[in-house]
Design a protein that fits this description.
CATH architecture of one domain: Roll
Shape: globular
CATH topology of one domain: Diaminopimelate Epimerase, Chain A, domain 1
CATH class of one domain: Alpha Beta
Radius of gyration: 23 Å
Order of helices and strands: HEEHEEEEHEEEEEEHHEEEHEEEE
Amino acid sequence: MESPESRPLAEALKGLYAKAEHIDYAVIDAFSESAYGGNPAAVIVLPSFKDSTWMQKVAAEFNLSETCYLVKRSTKLVEGDMITSQNESSSGEEVPVSSPGDDQQNDSEVGTDSAPEAEAPPRHIIHEYDLRWFTPTSEVDLCGHGTLAAAFVLFETGLVGKKDSIFFHTKAGLLSVRTVGPKEGDAQSSSAEGRSTPAVDMIELNFPWITTTPSPHSSVGELTQSLKNVEVVAIGKAAHKLIVELATREEVENFRPSMQELIQCDSDALFVTASGGPVSGYDFVSRCFFPKVGVDEDPVTGSAHCALGPYWSTKLGKDNLLAYQASKRGGTLAIQVDKKIGRVYIRGQATMVMAGILLK
């Protein structure tokens, strides 16, 4: 056990933590299994949203690519076709955390001559939250790593059971999140023999499919300095984002764009991407740049893979992919594309690196 001398501020700050008006926060490294990798996001759980000006100032103070704000709506128990709000249960008691398919035990023993009881319907808990994301300069409609970070906080703190589901109400619509174990065949790449997904649980984001429309090379004429030293294979537009496929993974890793050109171009962001190649262990790599919202380069961008996942799924002819975002911090994303319903399942790990309180 550490002595008080090893944490000289702990005793001095104890009184601050006890004050109800102060607000707790956590900083999560998303899409990373270890600290100081992936993409950091601050997560704040509030009883109700404060005004947008305050939330934007806090996001600017953190100066991370995303600050996430959560407000709980409800917790519901799903039994078969019946959905009951937790606070509507006749007993007023907490609904126990359970997972789909959990066996229901009868309190009394069943005699050998008794008729078999009907199988109880599966029980599951759904937690609904409102979720908003802010960069240091503006609020955004969709953020993948921020969603992963928010879900991680809820799961890890016990606010949500790890076998439960979370429904986030956002500007981009309803997003569902759950934890999943490694699945045989999921996110397996043929580009590296013998590689498998990590033998650990991951958080899975159920995100929308974003279609990429091919564009002519002339559409990037305003990025002459940024693209002058690379070989451009293909160009596309996806929801006001520019996707540029380069010839090699090394070109993506060494890419140095002109931020001034990106700010002046008519796209909201630039995603550069390339095949992972035969030895990297990844199906594709990417980097993402958002200087218009105060983030020159985003370390790991879950939402970008709503477009990059389907793009590479079509090119490679496979629905399960492993992706790497080749920023300085780096991050890994396991992706499953569902063409039938137009959804992209993005899986990743996360770790908490910081926790504290806001005094103002």
